[in-house]
Fold:
Amino acid sequence: MGEYGDAVVLFDMDGVLVDSGSSIREGLTAWSRERGLDTATVLEHAHGRTDRDLAGLVAPHLDTAEEAERIQEHEIAHDATVRAMPGAVDLLTEMEARGRTWAVVTSAGRTLALSRLSTLGLPEPRVLVSADDVEAGKPDPGPYLLGAERVGAPPADCVVVEDSPNGAAAGVAAGMAVVAVATMSDPGELEHATTVVADVPAAARLLL
Structure:
């Protein structure tokens, strides 16, 4: 059994379960051009943030809720490039087979998250915390604390699996162990996590 073989697992989605980097880049590029924003600045600040928080940061003169919906529309339009992360299907299938409790806590909106998970044939989580469920996104601990509450587990019994510095910071702030996968970030950017591994299969060895 891995180090976290008894823990409740709270997975981030993009960069952990879903390889959506191209879709996110293309969607945000289309949105930034549509709104006359600097694309490089938008992309620089996007990783690990909700669309609402991103819009508030790079376009505070616009309605953040409306812009989050527009970003989601652009990303869905580019979702043909989305793939499951290597090892993600096997990991979730084994979690289900063992009766393990797990949830998805994502900065994506609910519509986008469910679209990506179902399109890729990933098991639908019994608990999904999306950007639509929280006032403040990662690195605020609220999303992960809500995930723990909804699965009925104390934070100390949960382990977070993340790929972004913001997400890892949120898990740590929530009082949870954090396994960071260096799939979308340099390992040095994730050093505040409890453990940093190269990819999802390496994370699976700790979780199962």
Q: What stands out?
A: The radius of gyration is 16 Å. The beta strands are 8-11, 18-19, 83-84, 102-105, 128-129, 158-162, 177-181, 195-197. The CA atoms of residues 134 and 143 lie 6 Å apart. The mean pLDDT is 92.
